[in-house]
Automatic annotation (TrEMBL):
The keyword Secreted does not apply. Residues 10-172 form the Glycosyltransferase 2-like domain. PANTHER family: UNDECAPRENYL-PHOSPHATE 4-DEOXY-4-FORMAMIDO-L-ARABINOSE TRANSFERASE, UNDECAPRENYL-PHOSPHATE 4-DEOXY-4-FORMAMIDO-L-ARABINOSE TRANSFERASE-RELATED. Keywords: Cell membrane, Glycosyltransferase, Lipopolysaccharide biosynthesis, Membrane, Transferase, Transmembrane, Transmembrane helix. Its EC number is 2.4.-.-. The keyword Cell inner membrane does not apply. The chain crosses the membrane at residues 242-263, 275-296. GO terms for molecular function: glycosyltransferase activity. It comes from the Bacteria. InterPro entries: Glyco_trans_2-like, Glycosyltransferase_2, Nucleotide-diphossugar_trans. This is Glycosyltransferase family 2 protein. Signal peptide: none annotated. It comes from Guyparkeria halophila. CDD domains: DPM1_like_bac.
């Protein structure tokens, strides 16, 4: 057997009311990484839990030592924001994201990391080929996967799987919002070559402790996000293209109408109070409006993406980031 490749590794796990899962998770991560030759840290992001999750995380840090890094958020910001917090604070060259409810299995981590390093990839995404969720979850995911596949040209089976391994330098710049964590591969596809993204079948278990934090309302939010991602992918760089296309269409229609009326006029026909006149002028006006809206939204999206202060989470004021984990050396 060839030796496994290793690099400094950060594992990011968002946790919201997962008190029963904290210590088994930490244990399994330690087991899975027992033979890992690189430095590693486990960032347990408490997403404003109201149960004993914070206490369990603190206990885990005491029991297991400095591999465990507790990141307490000030309130519940949602899985995506919690993930963002962990990614921002991660110090590894490779970043793993996964769920904290043991539906993902830490046992898969070394294999995915090895693949990333060996093949020099930017992302190795988990594929829950044998997914242990009900059809209410599986059907919307199936649809979402198809749509994202078509839009991005990145051929993954399972965009929604939380278990993913990234090269830190490419994921560090990501700004996640809404329910967007499932669209990270789509976003990455705009930053890197599709050939640098791969997938790997991972283990998936049913949830055994605690409850799922999501119901139908999330399915709805995901659909809204899908629509925004569609527009994002198609038009984010140039929103003016979208409005410009519409505006030009309207303008052309209006222009054609005016041209027709002009001919009529020249031929000496009475164009008096013809409704077509009104419609043509309206269409030209709409066209101009659309074009200016396009230019405006272009400026707006620039301002948005260039402002680095799009904060989706908050850390406690006296949270000490420095020197809390001296074991993190290669
Ligand atoms: N989660 C979180 N904040 C939230 C909701 C969920 O950090 O507001 C975490 C949760 O603790 C778990 C992961 O996100 O580690 C996935 O959540 P869940 O298992 O409820 O989702 P499902 O597997 O049902 O899609
Ligand atoms: Mg789950």
């Amino acid at each position: 057997m060839t030796t496994q490749l290793a690099a400094p590794l950060s594992i990011v796990v968002p946790m919201f009311n997962e008190q029963e899962n904290v210590s088994p998770l930490v244990e399994r991560v330690h087991d899975a990484l027992a033979d890992y030759t690189g430095a590693w840290e486990l960032l347990l992001v408490d997403d404003g839990s109201s149960d004993a999750t914070v206490a369990r995380i603190r206990e885990a840090r005491e029991a297991f030592g400095s591999h465990v890094r507790p990141i307490p958020l000030t309130r519940n910001f949602g899985q995506t924001a919690a993930m963002q917090a962990g990614i921002d604070l991660a110090r590894g060259e490779v970043i793993v994201t996964m769920d904290g409810d043991l539906q993902n299995d830490p046992i898969d981590i070394p294999r995915l990391v090895d693949r990333l390093l060996r093949e020099d990839l930017d992302l190795v995404a988990g594929w829950r080929r044998d997914r242990k969720d009900n059809w209410l979850r599986k059907v919307p995911s199936w649809l979402a996967n198809r749509l994202i596949r078509r839009l991005t040209g990145v051929n993954l089976h399972d965009y929604g799987c939380s278990m993913k391994v990234f090269r830190a330098e490419v994921i560090k710049g990501v700004r996640l919002y809404g329910e967007m964590h499932r669209f990270i591969p789509a976003w990455l596809a705009t930053q890197t070559a599709p050939s640098r993204i791969a997938e790997e079948v991972v283990t998936h278990h049913p949830r055994t402790a605690g409850t799922s934090k999501y119901g139908l309302s999330r399915t709805f939010r995901v659909i809204i996000d899908l629509i925004s991602v569609y527009f994002f992918m198609r038009f984010s760089a140039r929103p003016a293209h979208f409005f410009g296309l519409l505006g030009t269409g309207f303008g052309l229609l209006g222009g054609l109408g005016m041209f027709y009326l002009l001919i009529e006029k020249i031929l000496g026909h009475d164009i008096g109070d013809r409704p077509l006149l009104l419609v043509s002028i309206l269409f030209i006006l709409i066209g101009v409006q659309m074009l200016t809206t396009g230019v405006l939204s272009e400026m707006l999206s620039r301002t948005y993406y260039e402002s680095r202060d799009v904060r989706t989470y908050h850390l406690p004021a006296r949270f000490d980031l420095a020197g809390e984990n001296d074991a993190f050396r290669m």
